[in-house]
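Page 42, continued from yesterday. The earlier attempt failed because a stray header line got pasted into the input along with the sequence. Redoing it now with the clean sequence only.
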Amino acid sequence: MTKKFFLELVDYNNWADNITIEWLEQINDEQWERPVVSSFPGIKQTVVHIVSAKKIWIDFWTSSPDPIYLSTEFKGTKNELIEIWKKASVDMKSFIESYPEEDYKQPITIKYPRGGRSENAILANPSSLY
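This time it went through. C-alpha cells are written below.
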C-alpha cells in the first residue's frame, strides 16, 4: 500500500463523514435520542460507535498510552460528539500525511479496554480497519 492510496482513502472517508455530519447537524434532540431498530438502538449510539472506531485507530497509530474508547465512556451531547468526529477526521488525515511510507508495515499495538494487547500491521492491511 502506498501513501497516495491512504490519502485517497482518508479523503473519501472524510468526504462521506461530512455528508453524515451535515445531516446530523439538522436533526433535533428527539430524533437524536429516538430508538431505532438497527444494529444499534438509535442514531446516537450508531454515531458514537462510528466516531469511537475512527478515534481509537488514531490512538493506536499514534501509540497513545491511554486510548479512548468513546463507545464505553461517551456521555456528551450530539454537538460535542460531532466536534470530536471533525477533529478525528483532521487528525487522521494529518497522521497519514506525516507518517513515513516506509513504516506502513510496522506493527502497531492495540490496547483492549478490558486489558490485554495485540499487534497488527494496520497500514499494511487496510481491510483490518473495518
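Notes: Helices lie at 3-24, 29-33, 43-61, 70-73, 78-98.
Reminder to self: strip header lines before submitting.
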